[in-house]
Amino acid sequence: MQQSAILYCCIFFIGEHLNNLVLIMRSMRPSQWIKNMFVFAGILFTIDMKHSITDCLLVVIAFILFCLISGSIYIINDISDIWNDRVHPEKKHRPIASGMLPLNIAWLAAIILSVFVIAVSFIINIDFGLIISIYFVSMVLYSYILKKLVIIDVAVIALGFVLRAMAGAEIIDVMISPWLLLCTTFIALFIGFGKRREELTELGINATEHRVNLMEYTVPYIDQLMNITAACMIISYSLYTFMSDTGLKHNYMYITIVFVIYGVFRYLFLAGKSAGAKSPELLLLSDKPLLINFILWVITCAVIILLG
Questions:
Q1: 136: which of 7, 72, 208, 274 is 20 to 30 A away, CA to CA?
Q2: How many other CB atoms sit within 10 Å of the CB of residue 101?
Q3: DSSP code string of 196-252
Q4: How far apart are CA 143 and CA 121, in angstroms?
Q5: Rounded-to-integer distance, Cα 166 and Cα 175, Å
Q6: Whether the Cβ atoms of residue 168 and residue 62 lie closer than 8 Å to each other
Q7: Cβ count within 10 A of residue 151
Q8: Using CB atoms within 10 A of its CB, is residue 204 exposed (0-12), middle (13-18) or buried (19+)?
Q9: Is the CA virtual torsion 102, 112, 38, 158 positive or negative?
Q10: Nearest alpha-carbon partner for 108 in 135, 75, 68
């Protein structure tokens, strides 16, 4: 009888916390984790170095750690945005904004995740741990202060992408080309402005109720910024394929420029066609031509670099 009571209590305890775990996972936004694939840039463009299994595992671990730390940031961001999210047509259904996930449990999950990731990162590699720490601090500042500052908000998002690429290279101790970092910066700015455009077009006159600094943006202005960053992205990537060590070593890298141009043009086409176009990272998963283009770009880069 006593054993049955203990078993019932255990099942009840697990059942209660299982629901919270599901809500915590939803708050970590797994659909956004595709951004963390930037950590694979370092190993992709040095694939001819015949990396060991250990290097491959380290990059995968870096990807997982960035998924966890970015997940903790999303939880913190949802906590800081709780009142603004409640006026958003979609975000009001998020676990924290809707009240399904209590704030104390959300805070506990964010703290445990961030402490665990930062501790493991320093154990693996001190420099990698520093990059993870800088990413965490900058994103927390973004959640509470920097996202209120026009243009700087998008610049901080761009920094996060650059730090991902740097971390992926650092953990396997390879150099990453400044041209590639520059290209990553423009890609990130392009994605950031795309998200702002999505918010403006989706929310319309209610945009400022969700995010104060949206009153400083207009769709025509964001379209100009996206066009500028798109051009800079294509130019910087083209220069990377010609002038970087990888480009000089592998003469046919310039072929991959075609995929970059198509990807940029495809997104701009979708953004202009629909007033509420999705953000770039979600479009990559939902738009088949973009997804196929990305896969072909990865395969082409790998083949060119492996064949020398």
A1: 208
A2: 23
A3: HHHHHHHHGGGHHHH-GGGGG--HHHHHHHHHHHHHHHHHHHHHHHHHSHHHHHSGG
A4: 22
A5: 9
A6: yes
A7: 15
A8: exposed
A9: positive
A10: 75
pLDDT means per 10 residues, the chain with 308 residues, are: 50 62 88 88 82 88 94 91 75 82 90 95 94 94 87 90 92 86 90 82 62 76 92 93 83 92 90 61 79 93 85
CB atoms within 10 A of CB 81: 20
Residue 2, Cα to own-chain centre: how many angstroms? 50
| CA separation for the pair 114, 78 (Å, rounded) | 15
Q: What is the pTM of this model?
A: 0.84
* Contact yes or no for 124/58 (Cβ under 8 A): yes
* Cβ partners under 8 Å of residue 150, min gap 6: 213, 216, 217
**Amino acid identity of 54?**
T
Query: Quick one: which of 44, 260, 85 has its CA closest to 168?
Result: 44
Amino acid type, 215? M
291 neighbors 266 (Cβ within 8 angstroms): no
Query: Is 304 exposed, middle or buried, given 0-12, 13-18 or 19+ CB atoms closer than 10 A?
Result: buried
| C-alpha to C-alpha distance for 251 and 308, rounded to whole angstroms | 8
Cα-atom radius of gyration of the chain, to the nearest Å? Answer: 21
Q: Judging by beta carbons within 10 Å of its beta carbon (0-12, 13-18, 19+), is residue 53 exposed, middle or buried?
A: exposed
Q: CA 18, CA 2: separation in Å to the nearest integer? A: 24
What amino acid is encoded at 275 in this protein? A
Q: How far is CA 293 from CA 183, 204, 257, in A?
A: 18, 32, 11
Q: The tokens of 295 are what?
A: 């896969």
Closest CA to 86 of 96, 101, 74, 75: 96
Q: Of 243, 232, 237, 234, which is closest to residue 301 (Cα–Cα)?
A: 237
